[in-house]
Amino acid sequence: MDQLLDLTAITSQSKPRSTWLGRLFKSLAASLERARTRRLLAQLDGRQLSDLGLSHSDRVRELDKPFWR
């Protein structure tokens, strides 16, 4: 039993970094997904917009947003 290492200090220090890095990657992935869907939205015609229940002004408002929002 004397030979066991106390790993609580190591794991508690590495956890915030991995959590921060995970949030960064999730945020980046979400931003890229929003940019991709907005590119697809820009390609839709009026009939397709109405099928989705969106107006032209809804599309313009969404396309004016930056990719991170």
Structural notes for this entry:
- By secondary structure, the chain is mainly α.
- It has a domain at about 30-69.
- Helices cover about 70% and strands about 0% of the residues.
- The chain has three helices and no strands.
- It has helices spanning about 10-40, 45-50, 55-65.
- Helix 1 crosses helix 3 (about 55-65).
- The longest helix has about 35 residues, at about 10-40.
Task: Summarize the SSE layout with pairings.
Elements: H1 8-42, H2 46-52, H3 56-63
User: Can you summarize the main beta sheet?
Assistant: none
Radius of gyration: 22 Å
Q: What is the average per-residue confidence, as pLDDT, rounded to a whole number?
A: 85
Number of strands: 0
What low-confidence regions span 5 or more consecutive residues with pLDDT below 50?
Answer: none
Strand percentage lies at under 5%
Helix percentage: over 70%
| Outline | rod-shaped
Query: Please, how many helices?
Result: 3
How far apart lie the N and C ends? 53 Å
> What is the N-to-C order of secondary-structure elements (H for helix, E for strand)?
HHH
Helix and strand content put the structural class at: mainly alpha
Brief digest:
With 69 residues, this protein is mostly helical. It has three helices and no strands.
